[in-house]
């Protein structure tokens, strides 16, 4: 896919990895649909892109809401005319142990709300945006590329029942959609980042972060620009589909 002049929607574009992907693709000449639940953050991303003569439009949307996602993708079509690619990057963490037991007494358990909040944004949000994005690409007839941002945690991680399950879910959608959507010339790929320095990881406990950094074979956290480069690589290579790229400095066992 030629990135220059392509219309690319990015969820979670308000900050962190989504913003870095947006900045990078704008510098390659893409026309961006910036999607996020947080208007103030989106406006910062938009201003940064415009200050470098990039092209983008802003869409405030909760990806977990079917009506908002449907309206957003209809607005993308109306304002930008077509959709060539979608990067599903919006995500949240609500970490906690399944149960906490002290001296035989149950102290705490992961609430259904804590479970559901993460599943709603990370998994249902990816499903809804993927569905609407794929419909636009298929109807446009020009094909396209969908990239789901999963995580190293998809293999399972202590304290992350909700997050790990959601990220395993979006990884399975990569394979499912790649098989279903190939007939519409739509490729689907996933990226499983390890640990990147963003606001999301800044919220991790310092001791957990220190342990994590020590465990990374290359010795450093990932940089958002490295993820953005990987997105570019996937978009450009028309033979990549149905697979996950592990971008984790060797962290996955
Ligand atoms: N940072 C990491 O180390 C890391 C590692 C593996 C995977 N990831 C994944 O990469 C993605 C981006 O992570 P990040 O570190 O940039 O996080 P971040 O918290 O910095 O940014 C996430 C963005 O998603 C947006 N968002 C949250 N809920 C939303 C909703 N309901 N609707 C629309 N937008 C919503 C937020 O407003 C925010 O702008 C996430 O899917 C995350 O799970 C991150």
Structural topology:
Elements: E1 7-11, H1 16-27, E2 31-36, H2 39-51, E3 55-60, H3 66-80, E4 85-88, E5 99-102, E6 105-109, H4 112-140, E7 144-149, H5 161-181, E8 186-193, H6 199-202, H7 206-215, H8 224-236, E9 244-247
Parallel strand pairs: 1-2, 1-4, 2-3, 4-7, 7-8, 8-9
Antiparallel strand pairs: 5-6
Bound molecules: nicotinamide-adenine-dinucleotide.
What is the global morphology? globular
What portion of residues is helical? 40-55%
Largest sheet properties: 7 strands, parallel
Kindly provide the radius of gyration, computed on alpha-carbon positions and rounded to a whole number of angstroms.
18 Å
pLDDT below 50 for ≥5 consecutive residues: which ranges? Answer: none
Q: In terms of structural class, how would the helical and strand content be classed?
A: alpha/beta
How would you spell out the order of helices and strands? EHEHEHEEEHEHEHHHE
Task: Count the DSSP helices.
Answer: 8
Q: How are the strands of the largest sheet arranged?
A: 3-2-1-4-7-8-9
Bound molecules: nicotinamide-adenine-dinucleotide
Strand content: 15-25%
N- and C-termini, Cα separation: 32 Å
Q: Could you give the count of β-strands?
A: 9
Q: Give average pLDDT, whole number.
A: 96
């Amino acid at each position: 896919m030629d990135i220059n002049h392509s219309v690319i929607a990015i969820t979670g574009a308000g900050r962190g990895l989504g913003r870095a992907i947006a900045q990078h693709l704008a510098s390659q000449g893409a026309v961006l649909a910036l999607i996020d639940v947080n208007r103030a953050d989106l406006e910062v991303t938009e201003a940064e892109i415009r200050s470098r003569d990039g092209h983008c439009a802003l869409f405030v949307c909760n990806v977990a809401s079917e009506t908002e996602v449907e309206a957003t993708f209809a607005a993308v079509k109306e304002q930008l005319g077509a959709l060539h690619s979608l990067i599903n990057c919006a995500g949240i963490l609500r970490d906690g142990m399944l149960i906490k037991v002290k001296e035989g007494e149950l102290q705490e358990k992961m609430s259904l709300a804590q479970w559901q909040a993460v599943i709603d944004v990370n998994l249902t949000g990816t499903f809804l945006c993927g569905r609407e994005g794929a419909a636009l690409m298929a109807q446009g007839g020009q094909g396209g590329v969908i990239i789901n941002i999963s995580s190293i945690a998809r293999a399972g991680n202590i304290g992350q029942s909700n997050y790990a399950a959601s990220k395993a879910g979006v990884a399975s959608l990569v394979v499912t959609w790649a098989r279903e959507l190939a007939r519409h010339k739509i490729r689907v790929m996933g990226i499983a980042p390890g640990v990147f320095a963003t606001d999301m990881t800044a919220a991790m406990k310092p001791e957990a972060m220190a342990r994590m950094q020590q465990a990374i074979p290359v010795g450093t956290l990932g940089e958002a620009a490295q993820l953005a480069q990987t997105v570019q690589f996937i978009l450009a290579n028309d033979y990549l589909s149905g697979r996950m790229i592990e971008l984790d400095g060797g962290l996955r066992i």
